[in-house]
Amino acid sequence: MEKIIFFGLVIPIMAYVLYLGGMAIMNGFKSKEANRAEKEEDENKTSEIRDTDSEHSTNLSDELTKLNDLKERGIISQEEFEKAKNKLLNN
């Protein structure tokens, strides 16, 4: 009688507890992988933004240098230089 109770109740309960534990562990692995992928995606976006910002600042400084050269050569006036500079800085 005791063996029937043991095999009929305790073993299925233990199996169910092990099943729940395994599912919890697998869900943890899935969540960790999803977080890793999300983090990599965020890092890629951040690096793209940094690249765009550095390209923009390089282009801006090049344009300002060209404008200054034109002003120093006398090709454009001080007023034209200021207008072009303000246009570049406001965009």
Order of helices and strands: HH
- How many DSSP-defined strands? 0
Shape: rod-shaped
- What percentage of the residues does DSSP assign to strands (E)? under 5%
Q: Calculate Rg over CA atoms.
A: 34 Å
Distance between the termini: 87 Å
Number of separate helices: 2
Mean pLDDT: 83
Biggest sheet layout: none
Structural class: mainly alpha
**Unreliable residue runs:** none
Q: What keywords describe this structure?
A:
single chain; 91 residues; mainly alpha; 93% helix
Give a description of the structure.
- The chain has two helices and no strands.
- With about 90 residues, the protein is mainly α.
- The chain has a domain of about 40 residues.
- The longest helix has about 70 residues.
- The chain is rod-shaped, with a radius of gyration of 34 Å.
- The N and C termini lie far apart (about 85 Å).
Describe the structure in brief.
The chain has helices spanning 2-73, 78-90. Helix 1 packs antiparallel against helix 2. It is rod-shaped, with a radius of gyration of 34 Å.
Give the arrangement of secondary structure elements.
Blueprint: H1 2-73, H2 78-90
Helix pairs in contact: 1-2
